[in-house]
Amino acid sequence: MVVTALKEPASLATRRTLRVKTGRRDSQTRAAILFLVPASIGFLAFFAWPTLRGLYLSFTDYNLLRAPTFIGLDNYIAIAADPVFWNSLKVTLEYVVINVGVQTVAALALAVLMQRFTRSMVVRGVIMLPYLIANVIVALVWFWLADYNLGLINAALDNFGLGKIGFFGNEDLAMGTIAMVNVWRHLGYTALLLFAGLQAIPRDVYEAAEVDGAGEWRVFRSVTLPLLRPVLAFVLVVTVVGSFQIFDTIAVTTGGGPIDATRAINYYIYQRAFERLDFGYASALAVILMILLAAIALVQNKLLRANESDLER
Predict the structure, then answer these.
(1) Which of 79, 37, 75 lies closest to 55, judged by CA?
(2) Within-domain flag for 269
(3) Which CATH number do you get for residue 183?
(4) What are the helix (H) ranges across 200-228?
(5) Is residue 72 in some structural domain?
(6) CB atoms closer than 10 angstroms to residue 16
(7) In this predicted model, what pLDDT tens digit does every residue of 131-183 receive, in sequence order?
(8) What per-residue confidence (pLDDT) applies to 230?
(9) Which pLDDT score, from 0 to 100, does residue 7 have?
(10) Domains contained in the chain, number
(11) Contact residues for 141 (Cβ-Cβ < 8 A; gap 6+)
(12) Is residue 73 in a domain?
């Protein structure tokens, strides 16, 4: 009886403690679910459902005027034989190479210069300013500046005797010009990302390299670049994926011309859907673009070892 009398209070206390812990855990779970509900609704409404709907429409003939008709793989077979699709893919790749190459190199140089010569918040704010302007406004401003007849850039070139240049009207220059406009807008943002990566590299690593007698270029190549690799990988993935989605600058400046020279794949999807009302075909193009971007991001992450840092070795 004595043993029982001693054990019962302990057992009751334990059960009470467990009830309190369980009740607290249940309360935290309910709060977590409550916070997740709005995000889940947004994800289902704006990502999951449109993705599933688009995937379904890609197997249909659908033009908004009648119900979708299931046609199997006909849209994908037609895309494989569509010369406009292959040209839009080539044009997009051309834009991606120019935009990513120039933007990454220029942003890295700017980030290194900021780290070496200034860490002023004012300078960072000025560098970031173009990114705060809407893409459409940026495209309009540069379109007017580079206008063949009235643009200030061509007026300056003419005054210096260099002659006028049709930046957006020449099929050999149009896509490069669009890429430079977007490089100008995104350069500051990319540079600040890389600058943050440079700030995370420990100073003692540089001091050890200096003690070993390494020069500036050797330090940059053997210390800075390897330790900056995770941030560079992130920047490259984001920039490449963003570049494949180029649309507004083209819509404002060239409308896909001249002679399809700037008809990128995203703009081609828009034209098939909203100009020709061929939503089934446009959905198939969008699915192909989604698969292409997922594959590129996967390969980039794998090759660049984005989740690993050389600092941990």
Answers:
(1) 75
(2) yes
(3) 1.10.3720.10
(4) 203-211, 216-219, 225-227
(5) no
(6) 10
(7) 999 989 999 999 999 998 888 999 999 898 888 898 998 889 999 999 999 99
(8) 85
(9) 52
(10) 1
(11) none
(12) no
